[in-house]
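Read as chain and fold; for instance:
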Amino acid sequence: MNLNTFHALPKTAAAKALLTLSALGLAASAGAQVIPATPLSSPSTSLLSRLDLGLTGGYVGGGGFQVFVDYNNLIGPVGARLSISSSSNGDGFNDDADLSGGLLGTIGQQKANGNISEERALRQTFGLDATYPLGQPLPGIATSVYGGLRYGSFTSRLTYRDGQSTDYKSAAFGVGIGSQAAYLLTRNISIVGDLGVDQYFSKSDITASSGNNTDTFKAGEGGYAAVDNAVNRPGTVFKAMIGVKYSF
């Protein structure tokens, strides 16, 4: 519609034409607008935000360390933890036990006369726990409790004065409970303290190995009682550790 035609229209018709043109202009303008897309959160980012990775050191049946991974809020507030710890101490054997069949005396006597130069107890523990947050009793300090299953692999080692050594290996299942407190240093990094106790129940076969020689002692068979009495295998293990945790 040109201007001459518009001025030629009656006032009522002109008003209607103006309203029609305005409506068409608004519709065209709205159609030309770009609606910004709502950013979508990445599933991998959401999963990572629930993960904690920690490293602690201290006492766990001896001096050692622990690595753990927490997945928080797996089912409601309940999370899951995978952990592995390794420790050692110098009390792998019962000094009053005799592994020589009466020929060389007890382990304590052989240590006293220098025939045995060292004994060690080496332990590796794998844990699968459920975790539950308890909140913040103090500002900046988050607390939680955990409990679950344990699998322990144990090695007691005797080293003799000639440099030869004999390892006595066994394993056991158990359960464990504990509590953890974390003090936030930065947005992602916390100092953590961990107190807990593990209890092992079953006792497996004992395998003795020295060089290329290996012998397995099974419960109820000859020789098992003497070896079982000599090797110190953990029953109750206490844990007190401190370290750092990184939250993704």
The first helix runs from residue 3 to 8.
